[in-house]
Design goal:
Radius of gyration: 26 Å
Number of strands: 22
Helix content: 25-40%
Number of domains: 2
Largest sheet: 9 strands, parallel
Order of helices and strands: HEEEEEEEHEEEEEEEEEEEEEEEHHH
Strand order of the largest sheet: 7-4-1-20-18-16-13-10-8
Length: 313
Amino acid sequence: MRKLKYLTTSIILVLSLILAILSFDVSARPLGAIAPDLGTAGSFAVLGGSAVTNTGPSVINGSLGVWPGTAISGFPPGIVVPPGTTHASDAVAQQAQNDVTTAYNALAGQACDTNLTGQDLGGQTLTPGAYCFDTSAQLTGALTLDAQGNPDSVFVFQIGSTITTASNSSVVMINSGSGCNVFWNVGSSATLGTTTSFQGNILALTSITLNTNASPEGRALARNGAVTLDTNNVNSIVCSALLPTATATATRRPASATATATLLPPVKGLPNAGGGPIRNENFSLSLVIIGGLSAIILAFGIRTYRNLDRPKH
């Protein structure tokens, strides 16, 4: 009985050690968000579903398009800065909308790290991760996004219905972050108030309205509704410059698209990780520790088990 007791105790210690280390490994994994692949939509600064309308001298740094709608109005006085191009209901815009849908669904499917429902984003400082609102979101004042020294940090905001910013509001990135890695997944419509300084890529199911002098650094991509502009500066070039140039053999772009347009480099995948996918880079080290300690405990248990068989003098 004593032999069985010692052996059983050793086995229980080994199993307890394994469970404890695995539990620590899981709990130590960082919360995180994943940047979606925008595909050919990465070349666009503004993309509407039903229409794009503009008032005043808006400046679009990136391509401009609409699909399945056909109407783009207000250019001029608005301008599309080369090498950005305009695509009204053509194959390029269609493929870009398909890629927006894919990216939108990927964002919507990410696990929520922190639920901010009912809280105003203004006055908050957030670290990389996925944040969600069950219904609408509001930004009044300044929202600070702290990348914590990691230029590849990703911020995802999943918003159930609408997002609205008050006039003079802002999204401020600090500590090496980039607005290119901020994604606003909006369940219906996004409205930026006058003179809002905004960071990130807006992917809205319905419409996007940029009021007078609102200036997003990123993209305004509306799946089904219109994008409405009024003397805005929409700049996606800073994001395209961070990405590798696509090859001419990209399989997701229709053959007709290459014959009808010159595109900015499409997004083949923004850098991951405000913590990245849920994983632990030290997982292999944990396995080594588990194996080593388990071997020691088992060896001790077996030695004790054998010693009990030896006659006492």
